[in-house]
Amino acid sequence: MKLTQLIVSLFAMMTLGASAQTEAKRQIARAALTTDGSTDQIYLVEATKGSIQYISSRITFERAATMDSPKINKLSRVKVDHLYLYEPKGYAQAMDLFQARKYKEALKAFEKVTERQSNTAVLENNYATLAQYYQVECCRRMLDLEGMKKKIAKLDSKPLTRQIQIAQLELFAFWEAVLNKEWQRLDTLCKQWSKRKLPVSHRAQIEFCHAQALEGLKQWKPALNAYARAMTADFTTSHEIVKQSALNALAIYAQMDGVKREMKNWGKPAANSNSEGYQFLGEAYGLASIYEKAKLGGETSLPAEYKAFLKFQPPHLAKAKEKAKAKEKAKKEAAAN
Fold it and tell me: DSSP labels for 173-190?
């Protein structure tokens, strides 16, 4: 190949490479645009507070992504009656991961959505901002409070209008107080919110945060009560709160002097079934049993230091179990005859 031909070929390749890069940078979002009572399907190229740029969806998505800028339509936002964004496929996939509790994978997927939908970020309830919101939620669900704080710092929540999300944004103040170990402030904040009518998922969060504040203030009994409320407020969906509340409560039982004493005296004359420590040991046994039977840890078993509680089944529960077994056995024998 002659030098001239080689240069021409290399130049062509560089041009194609630059074109491919341009294609990669072009962001378009599927949307429905209503103006003057007429609705058209469009590819939204960019939205600002004053105008939108778009391409008619009569052409293919791939062609729209590479169309020359002069062919892109521009319209003042004043003339827009309604602009509806269709849910991107990537966002739907990220939500599936989130709802499956695969929070690490969901976090990465939502990050990609935010990047790819950034051209719509000024629009109400746009998917870039929604994906940012769920990035914060992924971190919260994983109890990664440092990560949550960093994601909140990047979140411009003004486009969000749904009340459930706006309310959740307020609750992030509780989580940041936990991160900063501002126990007295958090205790006061939780008490101020105690009489508010809230969704059960929000109530579970507040109780969990309050329990940590009370634990930080060395108020063991109130902390245990708050952890119990956190576990029961939204047992079916706030899985991470239920799990961690159980572990935190077991950790409190494990360090209580009365519980330690009754564990040491178990089955001996010195045991005191009327003591507070004995009562708390029974509660620890019950909670450890529920953790194991309900598989609160998922594939992760109960930590060894808390499995020790399973040795201390209160006698009245042991008798009740034996009675239930005998009743079930008699029932089966009667059915067989």
Answer: HHHHHHHTT-HHHHHHHH
At 210-220, the pLDDT tens digits run 999 999 999 99
Q: What is the C-alpha separation between 20 and 55, in angstroms, rounded? A: 19
% pLDDT > 70, the chain: 85
- Name which of 240, 188, 244 is nearest 214 in CA terms: 188
**Distance from first CA to last CA of the chain, Å, rounded?**
97
Query: Which pTM does this prediction carry?
Result: 0.84
Mean pLDDT calculated for residue range 298-303: 86
Distance of alpha carbon 165 from alpha carbon 153, whole angstroms:
16
pLDDT > 60? residue 23 = no
- Please report which confidence band the pLDDT of residue 8 belongs to, taking 50, 70 and 90 as the band edges: very low
Q: How many CA atoms lie within 13 A of 163 on its CB side?
A: 2
Instruction: Give how far Cα 290 sits from Cα of 86, 189, 197, 295, Å.
Output: 43, 31, 29, 8
The Cα angle at residue 64 between residues 123 and 17, in degrees rounded to 5: 110
Torsion angle defined by CA atoms of residues 311, 312, 315 and 318, in that order, rounded to the nearest 10 degrees: -40
Strand residue runs (E) in the chain: 29-35, 38-47, 51-56, 73-76, 82-85
Q: Beta partners for 29?
A: 44
Q: Fill in the DSSP letter of residue 302.
A: P
Please check whether residue 184 is in contact with residue 218, taking contact to mean a CB–CB distance below 8 angstroms. Answer: no
Reading the block at residue 18, the tokens are: 């630059």
Spatial separation of the C-alpha atoms in residues 216 and 91, rounded to whole Å: 39
Beta strands in 110-265 (DSSP E): none
Q: At what angle do helices 239-255 and 220-233 cross, to 10 degrees?
A: 160
Q: What is the pLDDT of residues 101-147, one digit of tens each?
A: 999 999 999 999 999 999 999 999 999 999 999 999 999 999 999 99
Q: Under a CB-based contact definition with an 8 Å cutoff, are residues 52 and 74 in contact? A: yes
